[in-house]
Amino acid sequence: QVQLVESGGGLVQAGGSLRLSCAASGIAVSIRDMRWYRQFPGKQRELVAVSSSGGSTTYADSVKGRFTISRDNAKNTMYLQMNSLKPEDTAVYYCDHPPYWGHGTQVTVSS
């Protein structure tokens, strides 16, 4: 059974940092591109960052220079380091390992 479990969300003040984790079981994170998405209330999910199986990374313009996606194949976990957080980063963050999704973790940034 494949599971993706996000953690690390919470409440932080603007300018602060959080590190999200996406722990995978039943499937290896190393074999495929993985992504972080976020969803604002009443909106569709938007792509935040991509970690390719080949090692490259891409970011949404809104998070470039502030967020860093990475993965630890030995721990079978993907991460999203989020620095210089802004109130507009407040959302539920999800990881995916196609076709599987996690249940999300809430990030709230106060001004």
Oligomer: single chain
> Which stretches are low in confidence, meaning pLDDT under 50 for 5 or more residues running?
none
Strand content: over 45%
Shape: globular
Mean pLDDT: 95
Order of helices and strands: EEEEEEEEEEE
List the total number of helices: 0
Number of strands: 11
Q: Determine the N-to-C terminus distance.
A: 40 Å
Helix content: under 10%
User: What's the story with the biggest beta sheet?
Assistant: 7 strands, mixed
The computed structural class is mainly beta
Computed CA radius of gyration, to the nearest angstrom = 13 Å
Question: What key phrases describe this protein's structure?
Answer:
globular; mainly beta; 111 residues; single chain; four-stranded antiparallel β-sheet; 53% strand; seven-stranded mixed β-sheet
Structure commentary:
Helix content is 0%, strand content 53%. The chain has no helices and eleven strands. Strands 2, 4, 5, 6, 9, 10 and 11 form a seven-stranded mixed sheet that branches. β5 and β6 (57-59) form a beta hairpin. The mean pLDDT is 95.
Q: Can you summarize this structure?
A:
The protein is mainly β. The strands form two sheets. Strands 2, 4, 5, 6, 9, 10 and 11 form a seven-stranded mixed beta sheet that branches. It has a four-stranded antiparallel beta sheet with strand order 1-3-8-7, with no helix packed on it. Strand 5 and strand 6 form a beta hairpin.
